[in-house]
Automatic annotation (TrEMBL):
CDD domains: FtsY (cd17874)
Signal sequence extent: none
Topology in membrane: Peripheral membrane protein
Domain Signal recognition particle SRP54 helical bundle: 14-93
Function: Involved in targeting and insertion of nascent membrane proteins into the cytoplasmic membrane. Acts as a receptor for the complex formed by the signal recognition particle (SRP) and the ribosome-nascent chain (RNC). Interaction with SRP-RNC leads to the transfer of the RNC complex to the Sec translocase for insertion into the membrane, the hydrolysis of GTP by both Ffh and FtsY, and the dissociation of the SRP-FtsY complex into the individual components.
GO cellular component: cytoplasm; plasma membrane
Family according to the record: Belongs to the GTP-binding SRP family. FtsY subfamily.
Protein's recorded name: Signal recognition particle receptor FtsY
Phylogenetic classification of the source organism: Bacteria, Pseudomonadati, Pseudomonadota, Alphaproteobacteria, Sneathiellales
Primary location recorded for the protein, binned into one broad class: membrane
Native source species: Sneathiella chungangensis
Domain AAA+ ATPase residue range list: 107-254
Length: 313
């Protein structure tokens, strides 16, 4: 019973977090489909609505075409369209809804956390640390965003809160050297997981990418297979810019999975569908709030229903 309650409360948070996205899509569907047959004009309006919801041109066109296949020239209730939309979105998201898992054969499993400044990297690291500490794992944190004193301090707070050691260096220090020291410590301590924070100054793209490449080279000196995961943290409020970020970071550090934050209070949650459709990368977790438990494994059908404005669980 408690699991059901917990699931309902998470779905409630998700639905509340996606309210701006879903209300725009849901009310748009009502406007388009009230007492009208599904003809070419209506399909085009539905497509435009989905594009405005940040689902992307290609994805929106295919979803609208799929919905029209068996319903063309029929009068359809808005509720049926919302349900059909939820099914189409879930079909895109189901294959990428893959929880982050620790490779127990690695001591430590090294996870490099990347993303632009302000995307929520440091908070995501803290929340992952809390979850794995609660599961009895030994976790080490590396404050690799050496250019921002606030990021280092924030990670130290998470370290105190979760009982994790935090490896730091001076502000402006060498991020690659810091990553090397953190790996040495994590290995010596027999840690299960090493989470490495990184800088995200995308306006100096070439400098940032050169720094990331250096971090990767140094890590591989201690373990040729590391990092074992490279998680890209995306801020949902950036909308279509998130697609560019997946592309840019993917070229440098072989992104293995995604975490999407700040889905609460944004009307741009649909971009996750466009990202899943275009890149097919695993979506490990999503965040719908500032609370420590507001980062949860990504559930495709829950997300699809919340985004489409379909009922509750």
């Amino acid at each position: 019973m408690s699991e059901t309650k917990e699931k309902k409360s998470w779905f409630g948070k998700l639905r509340d977090g996606l309210k701006r996205s879903s209300s725009a899509i849901s009310s748009g569907i009502t406007d388009i489909f009230t007492k009208r047959k599904l003809d070419d004009d209506v399909i085009e309006e539905l497509e435009e609505l989905l594009i405005s919801g940040d689902l992307g041109v290609t994805t929106a066109a295919r979803i609208a075409a799929n919905i029209a296949k068996t319903r063309y020239d029929k009068e359809i209730a808005p509720e049926e369209i919302r349900a059909a939309l939820a099914d189409e979105v879930a079909a895109i998201l189901d294959p990428v809804a893959i929880p982050f898992t620790l490779d127990e054969s690695r001591k430590p499993h090294v996870a490099l956390i990347v993303g632009v400044n302000g995307s929520g990297k440091t908070t995501t690291i803290g929340k992952f640390a809390k979850q794995y500490r609660a599961a009895g794992k030994k976790v080490v944190l590396a404050a690799g965003d050496t250019f921002r004193a606030a990021a280092v301090e924030q990670l130290q707070v998470w370290g105190q809160r979760t009982g994790c050691d935090v490896v730091t260096t001076k502000v402006g220090g060498d991020a690659a050297g810091l990553a090397y020291s953190a790996m040495e410590k994590a290995k010596a301590d027999g840690a299960d997981l090493l989470l490495i924070d990184t800088a995200g100054r995308l306006q100096n793209k070439s400098d940032l990418m050169a720094e990331l490449e250096k971090v990767l080279r140094v890590i591989k000196k201690l373990d040729p297979d590391a990092p074992h995961s490279c998680l890209l943290v995306l801020d949902a409020t950036t909308g279509q810019n998130a697609l560019n970020q997946v592309e840019i970071f993917g070229k440098v550090c072989n992104v293995t999975g995604l975490v999407m934050t700040k889905l609460d209070g944004t009307a741009r949650g649909g971009v996750l569908v466009a990202i899943a459709d275009r890149f097919g990368l695993p979506v490990h977790a999503i965040g719908v709030g500032e609370g420590e438990d507001d980062l949860q494994p990504f559930a495709a059908r829950d997300f699809a229903r919340a985004l489409s404005g379909v009922g509750s669980l």
